Amino acid sequence: MVFDAIAALGRVVIAACGWTGRLALFALDGISHLVRPPFYGRMFVRALVEIGYFSLPVVALTAVFTGMVLALQSYTGFSRFSAESAIANLVVLSVTRELGPVLAGLMVAGRVGAAMAAELGTMRVTDQIDALSTLSTNPMKYLVTPRLLAAAIALPLLVVVADIIGVMGGFIIATAKLGFNPYVYLHNTIAFIETMDVVSGLVKAAVFGFLIALMGCFHGYNSRGGAEGVGAATTAAVVAASVLILAFDYGLTEMFFSR
Amino acid sequence: MSGAVPLIRLRGLRKAFGSKQVLDGIDLDIATGTSLVIIGGSGSGKSVLIKCILGLIVPDEGVIEIDGINLAGLSGQAREKIRARFGMLFQNAALFDSLAVWENVAFGLLARHQITRKEARAAAVDVLAQVGLGPEIAALYPAELSGGMQKRVGLARAIAARPDILFFDEPTTGLDPIMGAVIDGLIVDCVKRLGSTAVAITHDMASARRIGDRAAMIYGGRIVWQGPAGDLMASGNPLVDQFTHGRREGPIQMELRR
């Protein structure tokens, strides 16, 4: 009984090690093509537009409502201690350091990570990836590397937009509903924010973008078994990317801000 | 064939997936200019065999030689040079959904040759004409085409770079008999025009006789018979006879359960 449990645990550990190893090799292979020609600029631009431009509405909506809720909730709490003036500070720090990159990452993981896994998975089960190989085209170079690079560039750009819109959401609620002076609110926002607050959020976003594309491409590229396999790959890509975003968020926060 | 080096030479090719031994010592020579049809039941390893030759699957053991060059010993660039001699028509055409028809056809040209997109499009329209498709098809996407047209576009893509070795994976599967005959006719025309060597796998006996001048049967992971395609229906081999005549009784026992 005890040995069965140990054996089961061992199998899980071995499977996890194998998965991690395959993922690491896949990521290294994808990254290595960044410096080995030929480069597929057209695929990169297409991925950049798909990830960046078409994710703007969902990221903007998430950011504006998050900023609005933050202002409302913090007012409820801070007013009990007569600390309402700290609302602008809290909104801008929360949005730039955490909520901007994390929520944008989660939204993009749901939208783009799933689409990547589904597209590559379908290409795998319909022999399109094999067809690329027969046409003198390395599938990793053509399909994976442009997506990894595009996601790592697009997500910070999205987070810049999310930061601005999130702060604007807080500003709208604070001035239109809570009676703050617009000039004072903006002054507090600008006075408290530091370069590192924004930079840390952008670095997080780049890492999250890479993780989203990596999970989408890895699960899609290795999917098996027809429509069911593609569905499973899509689910796995979104779940894995979401969990990794939250885990890496903690690690990066420790790296940037732990004293 | 005796004396001359065969264009494709396979020796002792073995490949297993888990406990299932799919290829169990394939020995096969394919001479230059031959159209070889490989027949065999579902799951007998025909597609795996072709994918091993194409380098899409790595065999566990054995030798694959193209023009006397062993593929196993080749580096990336040398292997790519050999691969550039191949053209492949996949079972379901495997067209790239996100690209227009002309981009699909010209994909290999753009990848292998320094040509502009304008030149590639013109070349694609020329190749489409060779498979009986007009220039108006060039701008369409694969999802807008019928199954037969997709097969033609797949054939155009396979021959666009004028390869000297062509592979066809069940070219008539999923097509009605008339369209199947049309595709077979196009395949024969293209192979003759290019002077290519062709390897086709199929279940379709009519297609096998139309495409091939030689035939081989794979069973139990081995080549159990080979000879002229015209002898397929009267080979004298009980395995081939049962398969070609579609008899339930005989030496081939289909795996109905795993």
Describe the structure.
The complex is a heterodimer of chains A (259) and B (258). Chain A is mostly helical and 259 residues long. Chain A has one domain (38-257). Chain A has 9 helices and no strands. Chain A has helices at 2-32, 41-53, 56-78, 87-125, 128-134, 139-176, 182-192, 195-221, 226-257. The mean pLDDT of chain A is 95. Chain B has 258 residues and is an alpha/beta fold. Chain B folds into 2 domains: 1-85 and 163-251, Rossmann fold (3-Layer(aba) Sandwich), CATH 3.40.50; 95-162, no CATH class. In chain B, 34% of the residues lie in helices and 24% in strands. Chain B contains 8 helices and 10 strands. Chain B has helices spanning 46-54, 76-83, 101-112, 117-130, 147-159, 177-194, 205-211, 238-245; strands at 8-17, 20-30, 35-39, 61-66, 69-70, 86-89, 165-169, 197-201, 214-219, 222-228. In chain B, the strands form 2 sheets. In chain B, strands 6-7-8-3-9-10 form a 6-stranded mixed beta sheet, with helices on both faces. Chain B has a 4-stranded antiparallel beta sheet with strand order 2-1-4-5, covered by helices on one side. In chain B, a hairpin with a 2-residue loop joins β1 (8-17) and β2. In chain B, α4 crosses α5 and α6 runs parallel beside α7 (205-211). The longest helix of chain B has 18 residues, at 177-194. The model of chain B has no long low-confidence stretch (mean pLDDT 90). The interface between A and B is medium-sized, with 13 and 23 residues.
